[in-house]
Amino acid sequence: MLVPVTYKGGIYQHDIITDLIEDLGGYIVQKHMIAQEVVLQCFVPKEDIELIRTISKPLFGEVTDSPLVGTEIAVVSMSLEIHHLPHPSCDIAEYVRRIGAKSNMVSLARGPGKRISGLNDEERDVINEHDLAVFLMGNFEKCIEYKIPKLRRGIYVPIVLCGGPDKEVLQRITDPPFEGYVGNVGRFMRRTKEAEELGKLDEIIAEIIRVLEKKREEIAKDPLSVSPARLMGLIREQVPAILEVTSPTPLTVQMAGLRVKLPYDTFAAEIRKIEIEDGITLGDVSEVLPSRMRDYILVKILPFSETNTVV
Amino acid sequence: MLAVEYFEVECPDAQGAEYYRQITNDVLLDHNLLRVIHKVHIYIDPSVPIFVAVGILKPITSRVRVGDFANVNPLEGRITLVLSDETYLAPMLKIFWEKYGKDHVEQPDRFTVILYDIRADIKEIEEIVVADPSESLSKDLIYAFRLIAPEGFRLRSEIFSREKFSFVASENLLAENVDELVRAKFALMGETP
């Protein structure tokens, strides 16, 4: 079984580790080189973690669990105004990123207010392309109660709702219930740096992990035809154009899919034709769709029940 | 909020009131406005919805003069100004250029200005008024209260003078009795609008 971990170590001889992970059958999802340090976010076989630890010891490498590697999370803030940015939206997006998730901020065009607040189709579709959405609401119970039915309409990915009122209040005013709740995190205008505030961020992370674990269990009941991390490796090998993309994550791994940051019209056919194994192509086990995010490609992997193959 | 004599946030939602108290404090502190506010009362009712802020300002008389941030040293026919703070450098240079002409003003670096061949007393130069912070005060206050008020409340009515201010915002058309509401909030502080 592959588990998500983060490897942190010096740049010197780090290729030993990258080769090792690949030899063990693991996948490197993201690789960051920051000054003299390398951070690898990867999936590795559970039983081999100790081996990686032993081999990386002379290189002063560190292996830590990061349960959110391979997930893409939307942090939905009500607007791009200074009322909501950079605190708390960026604080939360950054915190989620630290434990391996790829977080995107989605700011609504008409999010703020009570009566006037709303969600348009593009925003809805972009949020639906993620594994999970964190909704950051304001401080008043009445406003949240009034606007939340409009904001959640058409969104079928799990939502973690954050707002100023207590968790119990949030649970009471939302029907049907959301997948996760974090209370006492509304709008504030200061940096989160005190222990209590950081505790709140940890609470949000714990809630996200809990909700995603549940989603993972759901997926495990009807397993995917191919692992998203494996597809990532194949695309990197067979579509060289991806190496030219300057975006920080040209291939973003999700729990049941992949975002490929190449134009759909030019590359969709090429990506569908990628051979995985024994003549089975990527197009056979997944849907290649245009993403609502720019002109990117969204690969949705089909479950075993639909394809009858697991590669 | 030590410097403010009266500071209340009134709201039917007690928890919301506490959050807005914190936001108000953070914003006013960030924008360095606590020193000019004497009393402030904020009223928010999310069910209407409406946001009202009324307050009394402290009198500010401090106009910024050259002597406040620069050392003026005459030496061999020229006057050297050594600046301790470059905030008002630009408006000061503008005044010097107008008054003495660009030929007589030189600025070798960020913290030094030299005046050549001018007939002026040191006292006279030190007394030149460079800026009046109270001019932009209303603008700063309105900006700060726009940040404090919930973002969706975009229909506003503001009255800002040198002594008092009232700021009313809502997402719906403001009702006709807003003036009464403002008067009532001023009365809570023991003042009249």
Notes on the structure:
The complex is a heterodimer of chains A (311) and B (193). Chain A has 311 residues and is α/β, with parallel strands linked by helices. Chain A has 11 helices and 15 strands. Chain A has helices at 14-23, 49-56, 89-98, 121-128, 141-152, 167-173, 195-221, 228-238, 264-272, 282-285, 304-307; strands at 2-10, 27-34, 37-45, 62-65, 72-77, 102-107, 132-136, 159-162, 180-182, 251-253, 257-260, 275-277, 280-281, 286-290, 297-301. In chain A, the strands form 4 sheets. In chain A, strands 6-5-7-8-9 form a 5-stranded parallel β-sheet, with helices on both faces. In chain A, β2 and β3 (37-45) form a beta hairpin. In chain A, α3 crosses α7 (195-221). The two termini of chain A are 15 Å apart. With 193 residues, chain B is an alpha+beta fold. Chain B is built from 6 helices and 11 strands. Chain B has helices spanning 14-30, 66-69, 89-100, 122-126, 137-148, 178-188, and strands spanning 6-10, 37-45, 50-57, 64-65, 70-75, 78-83, 105-109, 112-116, 129-131, 155-160, 164-170. In chain B, β1 (6-10), α1 (14-30) and β2 (37-45) form a beta-alpha-beta unit. The radius of gyration of chain B is 22 Å and the shape is elongated. The two termini of chain B are 23 Å apart. The mean pLDDT of chain B is 90. Chains A and B meet through α5 of A and α1 of B.
The structural domain count of chain A equals 3
Order of helices and strands of chain B: EHEEEHEEHEEHEHEEH
What fraction strand of chain B? 25-35%
Q: What share of residues of chain A is helical?
A: 25-40%
Count of distinct strands of chain B: 11
Tell me the strand order in the biggest sheet of chain B.
Answer: 1-2-3-11-10
Determine Rg of chain B (CA atoms, Å): 22 Å
Number of distinct beta strands of chain A = 15
**Multimerization status:** heterodimer
- Categorize the overall geometry of chain B: elongated
Helix/strand-derived category of chain B reads: alpha+beta
Largest sheet data of chain A: 5 strands, parallel
Task: List SSEs of chain A in N-to-C order.
Answer: EHEEHEEHEHEHEHEHHEEHEEHEEH
The top level CATH class name of the largest domain in chain B? Alpha Beta
CATH architecture of the largest domain in chain A: 3-Layer(aba) Sandwich
